[in-house]
Structures are given as structure tokens and as C-alpha cells.
């Protein structure tokens, strides 16, 4: 792995901080059986530049310190994000990339149903899948397609992909 520059480390710290602020700003809607983390829109920053997966993953980990689910959310929530972002960085099409968090929502479904006891695995997974799909695919992809037309945005996020 290449050594991160000061600029890249600073960008990752800012991404993590933004993720944390967005997540905790909506309180209970970020945690528990009904999740709608609009901070998940930041996941596609990893599509634009794989290094950004560091900041997003760190942001998820830190955000989960406020989770009502306790330490299990630190493990399962971060695992869900790490797997999803790894695959997002390897995917060539932004629409397909946006689906990875939805596909791996069963990790959070498992956490919510079996470890936290909120309800059936199928219902918990479906609820998380629905919110991930709405945020990641329905909202995020059009927003990123629009933002990628702005060269300053691409420069600020360290975007390496020119065509999405």
C-alpha cells in the first residue's frame, strides 16, 4: 500500500468527520431497526477514488460509538461498510457500485435480528436494504453524476474517475 500524503490524510479525516456529523445529526434514525443514514451518500466517494474508502470506513466506525446497539455495531456496521466499499472501488459502473451496500444489508439484518433481537432476520434485512437502495442508488447516483460535472468537486474529493 502506498504511503498517504498529508493532503490525502486530511481529506480522509474530513470525510470521516462529515460522515459522523451527518449520522449523529438524525439520532435514532441512524441506528436500530429503522435506519435511514443519509450519510451513506458518502460511500460513493470511494467509487471516485478508492483512497476515500478509508475516510468513510473510519466515519462509520466513529459514528457507531453513538449507536444504541453498543459495541456490536462497531463490528458489524464497520464490516458491512468495509466489504461494500471494497467492492465499490472495484466496480466500473456507478449504478452497479451503488448496489453493494444494499446487497450486503444482510450483515446489518443479522446484527439487528439475532444480536439485538429487534425482529425477524428477513424483515430487518429488507428494511436496511430498502434504505440503502433509496440512499445509494435512487439519490446518490444522480447527485454524483451532477457533481462530477464540476471540476472543482472532482479536485476536492480527489476524484480519479472521469466518466461515470
Automatic annotation (TrEMBL):
Name under which the protein is recorded: QueT transporter family protein
Keywords carried by this UniProt record: Membrane, Transmembrane, Transmembrane helix
Transmembrane segments: 12-29, 41-62, 68-88, 95-118, 124-144
Pfam families the record matches: QueT
Domain of life: Bacteria
Organism classification: Bacteria, Bacillati, Bacillota, Tissierellia, Tissierellales
InterPro entries, alphabetized: QueT (IPR010387)
PANTHER family membership: INTEGRAL MEMBRANE PROTEIN (PTHR40044:SF1), INTEGRAL MEMBRANE PROTEIN-RELATED (PTHR40044)
Amino acid at each position: 500500500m502506498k504511503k498517504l500524503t498529508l493532503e490525502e490524510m486530511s481529506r480522509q479525516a474530513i470525510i470521516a468527520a462529515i460522515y459522523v456529523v451527518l449520522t449523529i445529526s438524525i439520532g435514532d434514525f441512524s441506528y436500530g431497526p429503522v435506519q435511514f443514514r443519509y450519510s451513506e451518500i458518502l460511500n460513493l466517494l470511494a467509487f471516485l477514488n478508492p483512497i476515500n474508502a478509508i475516510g468513510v470506513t473510519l466515519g462509520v466506525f466513529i459514528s457507531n460509538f453513538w449507536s444504541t446497539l453498543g459495541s456490536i455495531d462497531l463490528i458489524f456496521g464497520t464490516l458491512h461498510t468495509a466489504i461494500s466499499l471494497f467492492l465499490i472501488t472495484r466496480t466500473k459502473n456507478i449504478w452497479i457500485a451503488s448496489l453493494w451496500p444494499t446487497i450486503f444489508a444482510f450483515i446489518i439484518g443479522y446484527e439487528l435480528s439475532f444480536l439485538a433481537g429487534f425482529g425477524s432476520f428477513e424483515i430487518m434485512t429488507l428494511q436496511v436494504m430498502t434504505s440503502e437502495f433509496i440512499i445509494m442508488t435512487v439519490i446518490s447516483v444522480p447527485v454524483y453524476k451532477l457533481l462530477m460535472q464540476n471540476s472543482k468537486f472532482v479536485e476536492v474529493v480527489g476524484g480519479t474517475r472521469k466518466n461515470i
